[in-house]
TrEMBL record:
Keyword Signal belongs to the record: yes
Organism of provenance: Flavobacterium cauense R2A-7
Cited PANTHER family: OUTER MEMBRANE PROTEIN W (PTHR36920:SF1), PTHR36920
GO cellular component: outer membrane
Matches recorded under Pfam families: OmpW
Name of the protein this chain belongs to: Outer membrane protein
Record-linked InterPro entries: OMP/PagP_B-barrel (IPR011250), OMPW (IPR005618)
Record flagged with keyword Phosphoprotein: no
Annotated keywords: Signal
GO biological process: transmembrane transport
Signal peptide region: 1-19
Length: 228
């Protein structure tokens, strides 16, 4: 009889241990990847220090598609890489070009430029239980912006922009539609500065206008995604 009791106890302990192990394995099983497609608005919060002619800078807003990838190291901690490119029109505001026979308050057309700003953020995700539909997150990271396809317009000869590192802050949420598919809303702020050189030698011999430009754009996005 004692042997039967001991055997039953042993079996019950083994069953409990197996169930606990199964539960822990299940809790550790979560989706490592998320991919999103978003439409984003890139809204510069620009300012500039322009030598020689003074004034400020104006940079247009851009609306473009964007693709991003998120990898989860744990259920709550993840890294996100965003990929997208934007085109912006640029001009000075209130510049004094009287030295070359122009007005004292003039907006100089500087053409357009494209930006490629791959941004990597580390995020903390809240409400990660499978039962939660609303899953917000916060993030911070870095970006490296590449300026390319510069078209100086019809006023100056050329414009050059220095590629630059910047910082990023982020907040957003995923709204689960099914176990795999979700809607996403996201806001980022990039802290981005660049040195700009305007070649205006077509207006006056040897005229070069350096400027330090703060772009500091808001990136506001909404889209859909899938986790796997």
């Amino acid at each position: 009889m004692k042997r039967i009791v001991f055997a039953l106890l042993a079996m019950s302990f083994l069953s409990v241990g197996f169930a606990q192990e199964k539960t822990e394995t299940k809790s550790a099983d979560f989706s490592r990847w998320k991919v999103r497609v978003r439409g984003i608005g890139v809204v510069p919060n620009e300012s500039a220090s322009i030598e020689t002619i003074g004034g400020d800078v104006s940079i247009s807003t851009a609306l473009v598609p964007e693709l991003d990838f998120t990898y989860y190291f744990t259920k709550n901690i993840a890294a996100e890489l965003i990929l997208g490119t934007t085109k912006h029109d640029v001009n000075t505001v209130g510049s004094d070009i009287s030295a070359i026979g122009g007005p004292t308050n003039f907006n100089v057309d500087l053409g357009s430029v494209r930006l490629l700003p791959p941004t990597l953020t580390v995020q903390y995700h809240f409400n990660q239980s499978c039962d939660n539909v609303f899953k917000p997150y916060l993030g911070a990271g870095v970006n490296y912006t590449i300026f390319y396809d510069v078209k100086p317009g019809d006023v100056v000869k050329d414009v050059s922009y220095d590629n630059a590192f910047g910082y990023a802050a982020q907040a957003g949420f995923d709204l689960m539609v099914t176990d795999k598919f979700f809607i996403n809303a996201d806001v980022k702020r990039l802290f981005l500065k660049t040195d700009v050189t305007v070649d205006a030698s077509n207006l006056a011999p040897g005229l070069s206008i350096p400027a330090k430009v703060d772009i500091n754009p808001w990136i506001i996005g909404m889209g859909v995604g899938v986790k796997f």
